[in-house]
Every structure is written in C-alpha cells, then in structure tokens.
Amino acid sequence: QVHLVQSGAEVKKPGSSVKVSCKASGGTFSSYAISWVRQAPGQGLEWMGGIIPILGIAKHAQKFQGRVTITADDNTSTAYMELSSLRSEDTALYYCARGYWETGTGDYHYNGMDVWGQGTTVTVSS
Amino acid sequence: SYVPTQPPSVSVAPGKTARITCGGNNIGRKSVHWYQQKPGQAPVVVMYYDSDRPSGTPERFSGSNSGNTATLTISRVEAGDEADYYCQVWDSSTDHSEVAFGGGTKLTVL
After folding, report:
1. Beta-sheet strands, E only, within chain B
2. Pick from A103, A121, B71, B98: CA 20 to 30 A from residue A112's CA?
3. Minimal CA–CA distance to A59: which of A78, A36, A38?
C-alpha cells in the first residue's frame, strides 16, 4: 500500500518561492503520474501540474505557466513542486496525488488519482 | 479552457437517492473521475472512468456519462456520505491540455 508523505507547512513572503516535496513509500512510484493539486481556503480543487517519473516528462496548467516547476527523483521516489513569485492568492493547501496516465495524440493524459498526500499548507503573508 | 459544471449543493434525505451532475460540452466523450472530500481530509476517489468503482467504494455509488452530462449516483444515502464531491476530466480542447476539476458539489444529508 503506497503512501505519499509531504513536507511540512511553509510561511513565505510575497515574491519568494516555495518548494514542497512528496515522498512515496510502500509501493510503485515511477510508473504512475504524480499530480499537484491545490485548494485555497473554502474553495475547490485546482490542478497545478504533474510529472510522469518514468518518462521524466512534466506538465503544468496554463494558469501557472512560468511559475511552477515540477520534478521527480526516481532514486528516492520523491516528487517536488516549486512555485515562484508567490502572492497572497497562493495561500492554500497543496496536495500531491498519484494517478493513472495514458498516451494521447502527441500528449500524455492524466486520469484518476488514487492516492493523495496529507497536504502541505503554504501561507503567503508579508 | 474546459470547466466542468457542477451544482453547488445537493440535499437528500437518508435512504433516498442523490444524483450529482457534472456538465460540459460533449463530456460523454471524456473519461470522468469523481472524488469525495470530507472536512479536513484529502480527497478520495470514488469513481474512475465514468463508472468503475474502486475497491472500498460502496456498491451504493454508481456513475454514468453520456452526451453533455456525467452523473454520480448515490443510492440509499447515509449520513456518512455527506461531503464535497468533485468531478475531474482531462481537457484536451485547446492546445494546452490539462486536468480540469468541476467546482464541487456539497452533498447535505438532511
């Protein structure tokens, strides 16, 4: 049974960056997709992007173009999400989630996510 | 971008049937996944690929998807089903394909 364990809460200043980690234990990591999903207080789920570790291919949501970097270290079964140029609206709970993927037309499609991390609170405040 | 549309709230009495919809242009051509999220907890997938129930999801949960509407149906609703429910698709409608979540539906058990 795989578990995803995320790094601890962060408090950041506007304009700075945050890097959150997500370590998998007890199961397969690299052959799945790892997504990053955030949830602002009282709001819904928002996909930021993901990576397929076995391919080393990352993808991000257009909204986060230029601000998010998603990487993975297969050796340690750890995925990372770095968000830069932080603003107050980035205050949220950030989740990593393991999911299924498939090959599409010139692309990789992310499907359902079956294992979620516990979430990492990121607070952006001056 | 493609944003699936969900009703903000659905209310149902215990023992009755709840239907939570997820709408979008030709959503029937996409695979829809459903998540349940209870307060203070991470989401849990309750339905894959329109109608595949993961182990652990009660048989009372079923899914369908056709035309412009996908539906998560919960039969014989219990108090423990009260939660927020989100649908999710893969949006390849533009050059920049990505995961799209619906806005979520709060299920209240009366």
Report:
1. 9-12, 18-23, 33-37, 44-47, 61-66, 69-74, 83-91, 98-101, 105-109
2. A121
3. A36
Taking CB atoms and an 8 Å limit, are B98 and A47 in contact across chains? Answer: yes
CB contact set of B82 (below 8 Å; sequence gap of 6+): B38, B107, B108, B109
Give the residue among B33, B103, B57, B97 at the shortest CA–CA distance from A99. B33
Print pLDDT tens along chain B (110 aa).
889 999 999 999 999 999 999 999 999 999 999 999 999 999 999 999 999 999 999 999 999 999 999 999 999 999 999 999 999 999 887 778 899 999 999 999 99
B51 touching chain A per CB within 8 A: no
For chain A, how far is it from start to end, CA to CA, in angstroms?
Answer: 40
Nearest CB among B49, B92, B102 relative to A112 is that of B49
B24, B99, B73, B26 alpha-carbon torsion, rounded to 10°: 30
pLDDT at res. A104: 79
Two tokens, residue A21: 């980690």
